Amino acid sequence: MKKLLALLLALLMVLSFAACQKEEAGEAEEEADYSFADGDQYEQIGGELNILNWGEYIDEELITLFEQETGVKVNYTELTSNEEMLIKLRAADSPYDLCFPSDYTIEKLLNEDLLQPLDMSKIPNAKNIQTRMLEVTNTFDPGNKYSLPYMWGTVGILYNTTMVDDVVDSWDILWNEKYAGQIWQYDSVRDAFAVSLLRLGYDMNSTNPDQIEAAKQELIKQIPLLKGLGTDNIRSSIINGKAALAVIYSGDAIMCMDENEDLAYVVPKEGSNLWFDNVVVLKNAKNVEAAHAFINFLNDGNLAARNTEYIGYSTPSQAAMDRLDEYYTKSDTFNPSDEILSRCGVYHDLGAFIEVYNKAWDEFKAAMGSNN
Amino acid sequence: MKRKYFAYPYILWMVLFIAVPMLFILYYAVNVNGEWTLTKAWATLSDAGRWRILWLSVKMAFETTLICLVLGYPIAYILSNMNKTVAGFLSVLFFVPMWMNFVLRTYAWQAILEYFLPNLLGMKNGTLTGTEASVLMVLVYNFIPFMIMPLYNTLSKLDKSLLEAARDLGANSLITFVRVVLPLSVPGIVSGITMVFIPAITAFTVPALIGNGKYHLYGNEIELAFKTLSGQGDFAVGSTLSLILLLCVLISTLIMNHVDKDQQQGGQMW
Q1: What pLDDT digit, counting tens, does each position of B63-94 carry?
Q2: A78: helix, coil or strand?
Q3: Full-model pTM
Q4: Are A235 and A189 in contact (CB under 8 A)?
Q5: Which of A76-85, A96-105, B201-210 has the lowest mean pLDDT?
Q6: What separation in angstroms does the CA of B218 have from each of A190, A370, B38, B54?
Q7: Beta bridge partners of A276
Q8: What is the pLDDT of residue B77?
Q9: Buried b (16+ CB within 10 A) or exposed e, A233-260
Q10: Closest approach of chain B CAs to the CA of A24, in angstroms?
Q11: Cross-chain residue pair A369–B56, CB shorter than 8 Å
Q12: Does B127 contact A241 at a Cβ distance shorter than 8 Å?
């Protein structure tokens, strides 16, 4: 049922996206630049390339262009979660060459030996990626041998400046009784626990059961203050001024701030999650040549700039940054400073310990009935 | 010609899509990653938090059913006493919303309660979602046709000569209603209660969308168990929870059948 809802929402979003884009198309028509930054030429490779990616997570023009340049036929499959991706990739006859897993999923894929090292000589455009990004992705892909970051962002607080008169710089504000009934918490176990753990001064990848218990108690205390637990529905609620504060992903925050200028986004001082979706080549890929060409293609400065504008999430490519206008590059939400990044970290795969989190999350949900 | 052959596709359907899936649920409840064990099932059963969620769901379903009955009975009664053409037209109006998808209607209510109504009432930053009352209201909205329909069917089939007889014997309209109409409409009431209570106890779209995820009912708990708690690839918790809910549904059906047992006239849906 949840999937049905997701599908429905996705459909709504596609429709509204289509509507938005039609409006913008007029202005953007001439500047839409799908040429290669360095006047690159791609060789004819041929064959097929099977790609697995999240929905709405690439500018389809790029796929068409790649097919024209290389003669490769791209089969593009969309899905909605890392778990679903793992199931597909574990299948013995998995046909996929290339996919876009998140940080902690890379750790899992490496543990299960499902990836092959990238041949960097075939990806000259990898030089465009900011070193400060590679320093972080290094933590889940040691030596950056198997993956390159594709899109990234932070988790933070989106708030309405007309409704909040305190300084927002700490997760603490989400426990402030003044804003009772106007706070959205994120409906996902890792994100909600990261907020609570960080606020208590703990590591968001904590594997200390006492800390998880303390974080759970704090989340239970927060229940009466919450407007609700949400994911995609948070956006329209906060855009329309129906909530004062929300835990949100930076990509979504940018989308909301476009719609309502009273909104502001902050990465709290206690730190936060930094997430990366990365591109990898699978061990049993059939068209390794085309897979590398595609990765190189995605990292072209011009094309990466187009792609990030289309998707709305931050690009790790400096060459793309140089081509985007100030609206993006000067924004702390889209392009966080090194100081903000230094406070953040990625989620790590917790192995079997995730059961402790899941159990605490279940207890938190059970506490809801008696607390509101 | 043996008519019973016509039942075979139905039996096949029942076996494939009802019996087999239930056996799967049972299997997954006691088989964790290929190993037969009751530990997970037992841990699920002995979890007080989960019983609290079940209690909350039963309470919510009971309230929904009661409100549906109190509101639905007079409507069905008035409809059944109207001229047939007018009643037919009005009942179509009542049932037309049911032709639209349940999830879509719930989304519509979310928009109404989150934006439309509060803005109309001048509550700039206020909303009406996320409260128990709003969840209850949308549950009632969604399920009330299932209460009205069987009641309307029973009441409109009522033998009018019995009412005339009651009048002849000196009963006023209140006594006629209490001693003749009400007892004769019990099958409709029973079938209405069953039709509302069972979907209400398993509801999870409404609490998720209208309750802003704050009203975590049993259906939501089962979803959580299958989606989040089965990270290690086992469905024992979710399956056990499903079995408990199935048992609740079974018990309430049995109780209702028992009440309905002696009634000759069926208060069917349509």
Answers
A1: 999 999 999 999 999 999 888 888 888 888 88
A2: strand
A3: 0.83
A4: no
A5: A76-85
A6: 22, 14, 21, 6
A7: A152
A8: 92
A9: bbbbbbbbbbbbbbbbbbbbbbbbbeee
A10: 27
A11: yes
A12: no
For residue B35, the domain's CATH number is 1.10.3720.10
Say yes or no to pLDDT of B270 above 60: no
Task: Give the DSSP H or E segment for A263.
Answer: strand A263-266
A–B: how many Cβ contacts below 8 A?
97
Q: Is the ipTM of this complex over 0.85?
A: no
B233 shares contact with chain A (CB less than 8 Å): no
Strand partners, A156: A248
Instruction: List CB contacts (< 8 A) between B135 and chain A.
Output: none
Number of domain units in chain B: 1
DSSP of B135-178:
HHHHHHHHHHHHHHHHHHHHHHTS-HHHHHHHHHTT--HHHHII
* Residue ranges making up the domain that contains B217: 3-260
Partners of residue B55 in chain A, C-beta under 8 Å: 369
B265 assigned to some structural domain: no
The residue to which tokens 């504008």 are assigned? A309
Chain A nearest CA to B155, separation (Å): 36
Q: Which domains does chain A have, with CATH numbers?
A: 25-152+276-335 (3.40.190.10), 153-273+345-371 (3.40.190.10)
Count of residues making up chain B: 270
Q: With a cut of 80, say whether residue A20 has pLDDT above it.
A: no
What does residue B173 show for φ and ψ, rounded to 5 degrees? Answer: -65, -30
Q: What whole-number distance in Å separates Cα of residue B165 and Cα of residue B161?
A: 6
Closest chain A CA to residue B203: A1
Tokens of A88: 């597909």
Indicate yes or no: CB of B216 within 8 angstroms of CB of A181.
Answer: no
- The dihedrals phi and psi of A148, each to the nearest 5 degrees, come to -130, 140
| Radius of gyration for chain B, computed over Cα atoms and rounded to the nearest angstrom | 22
Q: Is B49–A240 a contact, with Cβ atoms under 8 angstroms apart?
A: no
Compute how many other C-beta atoms are within 10 angstroms of the C-beta atom of residue A142.
10
Put simply, whether B49 touches A (Cβ < 8 Å) is: yes
- Look at phi and psi of residue A109 and say left if phi exceeds 0, alpha if psi is from -120 to 50, else beta: alpha
pLDDT-derived band at B259 (thresholds 50, 70, 90) equals: confident
Inter-residue contact A78 to A54 (CB < 8 Å): yes
Opening angle at CA B172, ends B167 and B176, nearest 5:
70
Q: What angle (nearest 5°) sits at the alpha carbon of residue A72, between those of residues A67 and A74? A: 75
Best to test chain B binding among A235, A355, A372 (most B CBs inside 10 Å) = A372
From B252's Cα to the closest Cα of chain A, the distance in A is: 23
Q: Kindly determine whether residue B216 and residue A365, on different chains, have CB atoms separated by under 8 Å.
A: yes
Facing residue for A229 by CB, picked from B124, B212, B221:
B212
Q: Cα(B214)–Cα(A231) distance, rounded to whole angstroms?
A: 13
